């Protein structure tokens, strides 16, 4: 993926800083605008992991710091919920001017509430996703309930949220009152995905129920079971990213995959960071990666797993193709392949302890109305699989630079 630092001004002329996450191999057709949680920033782990995952699936994702947070200008104490909504609209306008207007809005926690108010003012939006979002904003008051009297009396008070100190002004409290409930959803007739953890101790899952009841169809709910409010575990935010990518594909326009030069050409594209590699194979997009232990993000199979998968798939297809031609009833062919390097039993360098060859172990399970002779023949046919022939032969690979 490519990561670009961007900046733009909100309606007050305040400079906001953001990061645009892009696929490595092409300009995305669909852009996503991500709103982070209350007092968080664009570099917080949840928006970062979700954005990277979505970029690996072909989306462009903009996440930015709201006014007074992270690298953006302004003072947090001068911000408000309405100001956050205006920041989102400014971000959408920036995308529309420099790239393409966002077709998807994603919001985490208070950011989830903000996107519901912003959605009706961003015409390009085709789908909306909220993550652990409140249906009303009264739950925020518990963070500064003990200071409400001071805020009312002095106009502001300093409070602690998540171990950090912030000054909250009276207008922020008044703004919460104006944007109190899920009424915003009644104005939005766009597909909505609500993701919420039943174990969320900051914003209870009851809020998700309220949002779901208030929303128009089509609407979906997915439980983030076991996750905390902040999606602190990497696996939880990565899971959210994968689910979002699959869900939005039903409601947005997906461009046709560019034609490759030959029927069997595959393109793999890897950016400057990590090992998450985007693959175009025919009309299909895939992702390859390396395990976390060797510096990858484990967002897809590693290259040898892809090779093993090709052998397994080709084996099952070849057997079933032969059986159908013979009109033998085969209900299921299951092929397991594992890859390793093993010492060759017979080789020129057997005296060399380091001499090993690539080895694929293949196990096949056949289910159907088959006698022993048919099973024996089908197991022989497995060796006729084209990928098997390629791997067992000495293939030639030519390499040249392509501009």
TrEMBL record:
<dbReference type="InterPro" id="IPR029058">
    <property type="entry name" value="AB_hydrolase_fold"/>
</dbReference>
<dbReference type="InterPro" id="IPR015946">
    <property type="entry name" value="KH_dom-like_a/b"/>
</dbReference>
<dbReference type="InterPro" id="IPR022742">
    <property type="entry name" value="Hydrolase_4"/>
</dbReference>
<protein>
    <submittedName>
        <fullName>Alpha/beta fold hydrolase</fullName>
    </submittedName>
</protein>
<dbReference type="Pfam" id="PF02566">
    <property type="entry name" value="OsmC"/>
</dbReference>
<feature type="domain" description="Serine aminopeptidase S33">
    <location>
        <begin position="49"/>
        <end position="133"/>
    </location>
</feature>
<dbReference type="InterPro" id="IPR003718">
    <property type="entry name" value="OsmC/Ohr_fam"/>
</dbReference>
<keyword id="KW-0378">Hydrolase</keyword>
<dbReference type="Pfam" id="PF12146">
    <property type="entry name" value="Hydrolase_4"/>
</dbReference>
<dbReference type="GO" id="GO:0016787">
    <property type="term" value="F:hydrolase activity"/>
</dbReference>
<dbReference type="InterPro" id="IPR036102">
    <property type="entry name" value="OsmC/Ohrsf"/>
</dbReference>
